[in-house]
Amino acid sequence: MDGGREIWEYRRPDDRNSPLWDITQIGGAHPDYDRWSRFAGRVLDAFDLRQDPGHLEVKRSGDGDDVCLIELAAQFTGTSVG
């Protein structure tokens, strides 16, 4: 993990008729790890999300050069409201 980040990658299974994709956690040795981690950091900074848990989903282009934000969700920690 980098700064509390975990990066997971969806991979199309060998059986392309399967509706279920494989999900694999990637680490620092993955060729796109640093770029995806920097992108995630920039998105979180832009929304000023610094401490609470959350997730974001991105999609990369077919050639892998472009990364696009699909979803950002912040899960706020339990606190007293009121």
Report on the structure:
The chain has one helix at residues 33-46; strands at residues 7-11, 22-26, 54-60, 67-74. Helices cover 17% and strands 30% of the residues. The radius of gyration is 15 Å and the shape is globular. The protein is an alpha+beta fold. It contains 1 helix and 4 strands. It starts with 6 loop residues before the first strand and ends in an 8-residue tail after the last strand. Strands 1-2 form a two-stranded antiparallel sheet. Strands 3-4 form a two-stranded antiparallel sheet. The longest helix is centred in the middle third of the chain and has 14 residues, at 33-46. The model has no long low-confidence stretch (mean pLDDT 79).
Helical/strand content category: alpha+beta
Strand content: 25-35%
Q: Please give the largest β-sheet.
A: 2 strands, antiparallel
> How are the strands of the biggest sheet laid out side by side?
1-2
- Percentage of residues assigned to helices: 10-25%
**String of helices and strands:** EEHEE
Which secondary structure elements does this structure contain, and how are they paired or packed?
Blueprint: E1 7-11, E2 22-26, H1 33-46, E3 54-60, E4 67-74
Antiparallel strand pairs: 1-2, 3-4
Which key terms come to mind for this protein?
82 residues; alpha+beta; two-stranded antiparallel ribbon; 4 strands
In short:
The protein contains one helix and four strands.
